[in-house]
Design brief:
By secondary structure, this protein is mainly α. Helix content is 65%, strand content 3%. It contains seven helices and two strands; from the N terminus they run ααααααββα. The protein has a two-stranded antiparallel ribbon. The radius of gyration is 17 Å and the shape is elongated. The relative contact order is 0.14.
Length: 136
Amino acid sequence: MSIGEGIKARRLQRGMTLEELADALNEKFPGVINFNKGKLSKWENGKEEPRLSSIKLIADFFNITIDDLYNSKVEDLFSEQEETDIQKEVERLLSDVKKGNYVLEGEELSEDAKESLRGAFENAVRTAILINRNTK
């Protein structure tokens, strides 16, 4: 598991946006590292790796160990029933794509593009559930 997945899982568990996490980190650790949503997004999406000093601060913020941060994943935040419901919703969202009714730039999507949409839909549904869960 990547450190980015762990950061994202813990952020979503708290119902925070990237901007809210950046602001909270900067407030807790003023002048140490300038966290911003762009940097956090790159870490969460595996486009960049944070320095160990940043990882230590993030783990401290969430009151967990660095190992816990590395071993956190978004999927662990859902029950078996929620996982089943998430997959059903993803399938519903993909139904037009699978039928060939979804066209981009005048062409039907390749299998790789369809799989990319599946991942994006799954991520969106998981995020929406966690945000909704934390705003009730």
